[in-house]
């Protein structure tokens, strides 16, 4: 006469398992094994993966890279905010994007179908790269530089919100990427 | 041995026939009462958050919003739940095993430390310079006493864990039970083992962070912080899951006389949590720099899926045990007669069944999907994440704890519930509110709406961004669900506090409320097609199909975004 709150009857460890449970366990375990394989397989069969390329850096060193990158490829000032340079790097090049309280800099301009090695890092606290409306999200640390090769597959104006809380101005933090034909 | 041998006075509870150590009873009561008080505080903060993220209301200014959100996370996710867990482990170790509680003096130290710790952190948050969210990611800094309060709180919880373990030693020594531990106590033991690992991880990261906030340590690496913090943060959710599943099993037995379908299967499933889940906490770091894909995949997929397997097993065996008991008790017709004849108006049962459904269908399915390395990229840190974990922690854990509270008020406080009509609808208010909140926020998150964000309109930003109308609608619907769940939570607090203060005394000759063992009809032929629990099996298959479909829908959506490599 066992329940959950009384000790189990003697021999509980050798009691046969009922059919409902056996079939369910086999089914659930098979699915777990499938998901394990699928996550690995997507690295080959899928086009959306993290390559997990990352480097140690410092906020000062990274700020310098962003500055040099901006100086080299600025094409115009942004129409919405003339204080912001719009940077159009050549396809295949390294792109440096910096998060700081509370901005994503610089504004970028990409070409559809071309690949860019986008570096992401923070100059102060932790931030979150959130490409809208695509909804692609990465964590940004200070002192670590993450590289993701991005290939836009549609044209338009994309926002970059911050989705890691970074203080009182977190919700006004917004960057931009233009994608042209 | 250091254990005191003085005998505690006991009473025999008329409602359950259980032998209750009066010293343990006082400690269970104080922990439960403090838990409910903090639930009230956490719920109030949650209401402010919901009313601010509801776009048309947008109640609080940014500084107060981030303060309320920090308070809501700390109080509702940590303080309420861990106080209640202390009540649960003391109750299970002493009352379920008919044993006196080990070192009640130390248990009071637990109560004091946790209360003082929670109060210190609460003060730090309310002072306004510690709006760092529950996770307090470095190098964002809070006031030193924000961390100090959390450390004291954790030390208190650790003492509670050792009181539990000491009580098991006494029970074994004094032979208050025969054979193996009951499943209820075994589940608590699993939770306590995970808790000790969790608190150790918390100490490893919060103590240096406290020293850093005092200026004694120069810097804390952000990646190290996140790796260790989540060994604490996620494992603490695993304590909650283990505790609420233990409560599911216990309520199934108390309310239906159910016997676990297979002790062996249920115990092995609990063991899987200890073996695998802590490493699974890496699923919080899937979009972070600095860790390899192999590391991410090994920990989230290999490790976590074994824990997922455990939850899928419990998700079948608890309703399965109820079904078998109901069938043995005569409701053996068709697939679902047993379910129709369940006491849906009884808040203990309603809380438990809603907890099982919400945890499985809302928290579980989405949790498995979002912790895929690649799918995580389209979910990480969006409002989808709070949608998911309100399904597990509010819909799963909090609702299960509410159900057990309804059972324990007459037993421990010896008071009848006041406002029985309200108690009847309360689980539905809270459960449906949380379900709507979870699903709608996940919808908004799929559109990219960020979490922990004061103003999705980006007002005042020259680089504007226009959301689709659906994003605003999802946020509104979700937060209305959130407000409904707060109303349900407030109703719970009113019933609990009111019953304790002014509820009718349970008479000494009250009738036993524990269901007779369904096992006495063990020779009865039950079930269909060779299955003892065919209805549960069909429900589990439904969950399975939803999970598989949802998993692939997310991959289909993922395949449409920019190419990433």
Keywords:
A: 181 residues, alpha+beta, Immunoglobulin-like, seven-stranded mixed sheet, 2 helices, 36% strand, B: 565 residues, 14 helices, 68% helix, disordered N terminus
What gap, in angstroms, lies between the N and C termini of chain B?
61 Å
- Sheet bearing the most strands of chain B, described? 2 strands, antiparallel
Distance between the termini of chain A: 74 Å
Q: What would you say the CATH architecture of chain A is?
A: Sandwich
Q: List the helices and strands of chain A in order.
A: HEHEEEEEEEEEEE
Instruction: Give the chain pair forming the largest contact, with residue counts.
Output: A-B, 93 and 114 residues
**What portion of residues of chain B is helical?**
55-70%
Rg calc of chain B: 23 Å
CATH topology of chain A: Immunoglobulin-like
Q: Summed up, what is this model?
A:
By secondary structure, chain A is α+β, with helices and mostly antiparallel strands. Chain A contains 2 helices and 12 strands. Chain A has a single domain, classed as Sandwich (Immunoglobulin-like).
Would you kindly provide a written description of the structure presented here, covering whatever features stand out?
The complex is a heterodimer of chains A (181) and B (565). Chain A has 181 residues and is of the alpha+beta class. Chain A has a single domain (53-180), classed as Immunoglobulin-like (Sandwich). In chain A, 23% of the residues lie in helices and 36% in strands. Chain A contains two helices and twelve strands; from the N terminus they run αβαβββββββββββ. Chain A has helices at 19-45, 59-73; strands spanning 53-56, 74-77, 85-87, 94-100, 103-105, 107-111, 116-122, 127-132, 136-140, 144-151, 156-162, 174-180. In chain A, the strands form two sheets. A seven-stranded mixed β-sheet of chain A has the order 2-3-6-12-11-8-9. A five-stranded mixed β-sheet of chain A has the order 1-10-7-4-5, covered by helices on one side. In chain A, strand 8 (127-132) and strand 9 form a beta hairpin. The longest helix of chain A has 27 residues, at 19-45. Chain A is elongated and about 80 Å long. The mean pLDDT of chain A is 96. Chain B is an all-alpha fold and 565 residues long. Among the domains of chain B are: 31-37 and 66-252, no CATH class; 257-342 and 533-560. In chain B, 68% of the residues lie in helices and 1% in strands. Chain B has 14 helices and three strands. A two-stranded antiparallel ribbon of chain B has the order 1-2. In chain B, helix 2 (62-96) packs parallel to helix 4 (144-173), helix 6 packs antiparallel against helix 7 and helix 10 (347-370) runs parallel beside helix 12 (420-446). In chain B, 60% of the residues are buried. The model of chain B is unreliable at 1-5 (pLDDT under 50). The chains are: A alpha+beta (181), B mainly alpha (565). Chains A and B meet through helix 1, strand 8, strand 9, strand 10 and strand 11 of A and helix 2, helix 6, helix 7, helix 8 and helix 14 of B.
């Amino acid at each position: 006469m066992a329940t959950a709150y009384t000790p189990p009857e003697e021999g509980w460890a050798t009691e046969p398992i009922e059919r409902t449970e056996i079939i369910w366990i086999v089914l659930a375990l098979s699915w777990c094994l499938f998901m394990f394989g699928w996550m690995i397989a997507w690295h080959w069969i899928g086009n959306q993966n993290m390559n997990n390329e990352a480097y140690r850096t410092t906020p000062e060193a990274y700020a310098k890279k962003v500055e040099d990158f901006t100086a080299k490829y600025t094409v115009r000032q942004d129409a919405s905010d003339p204080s912001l340079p719009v940077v159009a790097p050549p396809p295949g090049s390294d792109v440096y994007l910096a998060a700081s309280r509370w901005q994503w800099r610089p504004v970028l301009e990409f070409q559809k179908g071309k690949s860019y090695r986008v570096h992401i890092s923070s100059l102060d606290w932790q931030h979150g790269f959130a490409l809208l409306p695509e909804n692609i999200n990465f964590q940004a640390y200070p002192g670590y530089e993450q590289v993701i090769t991005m290939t836009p597959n549609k044209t338009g104006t994309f926002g970059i919100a911050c989705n890691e809380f970074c203080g009182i101005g977190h919700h006004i933090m917004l960057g931009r990427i233009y994608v042209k034909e | 041995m250091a254990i005191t041998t003085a005998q505690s006075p006991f009473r025999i509870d008329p409602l359950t026939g259980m032998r209750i150590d009066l010293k343990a009873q006082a400690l269970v009561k104080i922990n439960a009462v403090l838990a409910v008080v903090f639930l009230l505080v956490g719920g109030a903060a949650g209401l402010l958050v919901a009313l601010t993220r509801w776009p048309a209301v947008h109640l609080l200014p940014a500084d107060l919003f981030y303060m309320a959100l920090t308070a809501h996370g700390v109080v509702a996710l940590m303080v309420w739940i861990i106080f209640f867990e202390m009540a649960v482990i003391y109750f299970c170790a002493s009352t379920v095993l008919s044993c006196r509680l080990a070192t009640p003096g130390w248990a009071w130290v637990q109560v004091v430390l946790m209360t003082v710790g929670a109060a210190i952190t609460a003060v730090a948050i309310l002072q306004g310079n510690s709006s760092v969210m529950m996770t307090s990611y470095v190098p964002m800094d809070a006031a030193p006493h924000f961390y100090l309060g959390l450390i004291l709180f954790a030390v208190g919880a650790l003492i509670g864990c050792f009181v539990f373990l000491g009580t098991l030693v006494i029970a074994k020594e004094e032979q208050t039970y025969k054979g193996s531990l009951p499943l209820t106590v075994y589940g608590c033991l699993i939770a306590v083992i995970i808790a000790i690992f969790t608190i150790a991880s918390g100490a490893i990261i919060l103590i240096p962070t406290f020293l850093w906030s005092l200026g004694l340590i120069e810097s804390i690496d952000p990646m190290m912080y996140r790796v260790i913090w989540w060994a604490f943060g996620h494992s603490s959710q695993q304590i909650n899951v283990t505790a609420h599943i233990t409560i599911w099993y216990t309520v199934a037995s108390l309310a239906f006389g159910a016997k676990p379908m297979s002790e062996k299967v249920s115990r092995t499933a609990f063991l899987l949590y200890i073996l695998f889940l802590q490493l699974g906490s890496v699923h919080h770091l899937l979009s972070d720099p600095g860790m390899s894909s192999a590391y991410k995949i090994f920990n989230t997929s290999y490790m976590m899926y074994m824990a997922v397997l455990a939850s899928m097993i419990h998700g079948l065996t608890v309703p399965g045990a109820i079904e078998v008991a109901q069938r043995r008790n005569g409701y053996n017709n068709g697939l679902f007669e047993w379910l129709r004849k369940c006491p849906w108006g009884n808040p203990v049962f309603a809380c438990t069944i809603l907890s099982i459904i919400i945890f499985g269908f809302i928290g579980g399915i989405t949790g498995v999907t979002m912790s895929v390395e690649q799918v995580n990229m389209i979910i990480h840190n969006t409002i989808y994440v709070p949608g998911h974990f309100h399904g597990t922690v509010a819909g799963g854990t909090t609702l299960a704890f509410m159900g057990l509270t309804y059972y324990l008020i007459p037993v421990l406080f010896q008071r009848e519930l006041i406002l029985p009509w309200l108690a009847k609808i309360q689980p539905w208010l809270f459960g449906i509110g949380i379900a709507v909140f979870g699903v709608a926020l996940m919808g908004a998150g799929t559109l990219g709406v960020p979490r922990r964000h004061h103003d999705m309109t980006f007002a005042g930003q020259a680089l504007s961004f226009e959301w689709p109308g659906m994003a605003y609608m999802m946020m509104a619907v979700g937060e209305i669900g959130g407000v409904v769940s707060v109303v349900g939570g407030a109703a719970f607090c009113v019933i609990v506090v009111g019953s304790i203060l002014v509820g009718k005394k349970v008479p000494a000759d009250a009738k036993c409320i524990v269901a007779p063992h369904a096992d006495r009809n063990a020779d009865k032929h039950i079930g269909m097609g060779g299955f003892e629990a065919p209805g549960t099996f069909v429900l589990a298959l439904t969950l399975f199909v939803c999970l598989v479909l949802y998993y692939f829908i997310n991959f289909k959506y993922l395949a449409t975004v920019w190419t990433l490599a």
